[in-house]
From TrEMBL:
Residues 416-429 have a biased composition (Polar residues). Residues 356-429 are annotated as: Disordered. PANTHER family: CTX-RELATED TYPE I TRANSMEMBRANE PROTEIN, DPR-INTERACTING PROTEIN ETA, ISOFORM B-RELATED. GO terms for cellular component: neuron projection; plasma membrane. InterPro entries: Ig-like_dom, Ig-like_dom_sf, Ig-like_fold, Ig_sub, Ig_sub2, Ig_V-set, Neural/epithelial_adhesion. Keywords: Cell membrane, Disulfide bond, Glycoprotein, Immunoglobulin domain, Membrane, Repeat, Signal. Residues 39-139, 142-231, 242-323 form the Ig-like domain. This is Hemicentin-1.
Amino acid sequence: MIFIVITTIVFLCNFCELLNNFKTSLLKASTSAQSPKRPSFAEPIPNVTAAVGREAVLQCTIDDLDSFKVAWIKVDTETLLSYHTHVVPRDNRLKVTNSNSDRQWFLHIKNLDVSDRGFYMCQINTEPMISERGYLDVTVPPSIVEEKTSTDITVDERSKVSLRCKAAGYPTPRVIWRREDGKEINLGPMGAQKSTVPRMEGEFLNMTQVMREDMGAYLCIASNGVPPSVSKRILLQVNFQPKIRVNNQMVGAALGSDVVLGCRLEASPRPLTSWIRNDGVILLDNKKYELTEEADSYRINMQLKIRKLEIKDFGHYKCVAKNTLGDKEGFVRLIEIIPPTSVPHSTQSQEFYVPVHKGSSDASKNDSHMKKGYGIPAPNSLRDESQSLSSEEKQMSSSKEGETLDSDKPKRKQNQHPMQGSQTDSSGSCQTSISIYVILVFLLATLLFD
C-alpha cells in the first residue's frame, strides 16, 4: 500500500514538471511571434580604390533593417561621419544616400585627399550593436621631386656623370631613363667593349666615361599605374676642343666661275669660326664671298663660296675654329683649271713592209739594214737592185692573189709621221722606180744586140 502511494506521488510530480515546460514553450513562442526580425549585413563592404581628387563611393548592404538606424564611422580617427541620412561633420565633400527600400546605403566622398585613406565602418544601432568594415585606398599619380632631381649639366669629355631623378606618388613610382633622340645610353667601357642599353631603370643613371656622342637630352619617366605618367628632360652638355676635317684639300676651278670650299667641324661649346685667305685677310660675307654654316648638335659644316674667280683668288685658304678649350685650323688649296679649247683627233700609224736581201755581204747587210730602217732601199749594186725589184714584184703579185708572204722573207713594221714621213717615202720610191726602168732598158738592149 505504501509503495502504491509513493508511485502515485512521483507520477504527479513528473506531470507537473511537464506541464510547466509546456507552458514555458508556449510563452516563448508567443513572445518570438510578437517581436520584429533582427537586421543583418547581406554582404561585406567592397574595398574601393580611387585617385586623389576623384570621388569614392562605399556601399553597405543590409537585410531587414526595419526601424533601426545606420551610421558611418572613420575607424582610425573614430569620427562619426553620418547618422542615417544626416552628415555629422561640416564637410561638403561627404554625402549619404540610400536605395532599394533602405537596403543599400552609400557614403560619397568627393575630391579625395590622402588623409581619406583607411577603414570605414557601417554600423547598425541594434542591441548589441553590429557593424561591417571596408577599406578605401587613395592613390597618388607620380610626380617629380624637383629639389632632389638633377638639372642640366655640363662636363668635359671622358668625365664621369651621375644623373638623379626622384619621383613621388602612391604606389611608389617606377623610374625609367632613355635618350630623347632614341639612341642607346652609353654606360661606359666594360673591359675592352662599350656597354650600351636602350633604357635604364632606377633613380640614378651612372655613366663612367661620357663621350661627345653621348651629348643630348635624357628623359626620366615616372609611372605607377595611376595616370598620368610624368617625365623630366635633362640636357647633358659634353665639352671638347675643336676638330676640323677637310674632305677636299685641293679644289680646281676656272677663271670667271664660282667655287665652294668646305670644312667639317666638331666642337663644344659652339666655337668662333672664320675663313682666312693666304695673305692673312679674314673674309667677310659680301658680294664676293658667301659664308654659310650648317649646325647639327656639335657638328658644323663650314662653307665658303667665291664668286667670279680671278687670278688673285687662287691659292691657300684656311678655316679656323676656336672655343674655350682650344683652336684648330684646316687648309684648302684652290688651283686654276684651264678648260680645253678643242677636241684633239687621234692619228693612226702607217705600216710599211721592207724586203730583206739574202745574198748581200755583211757590210752591205748592215748598211742596207740602217737605210731600210728609214724606209729607203740600199742600192749597193745592180744585183741588189734587181733582187729588190724581183722581191717587190713578187710581193705585189702575192698581195693581188691574196697569198701570204714567204716565211723566209720577214716583214718590218715602222710607224711614220703623217706629213714628213709620207714625203720622204714618195721621193725615195720615185728614184727607185727610175733606176729600175733604166736597168731594165739596159738589160733588154744587151739581149737584143747579142
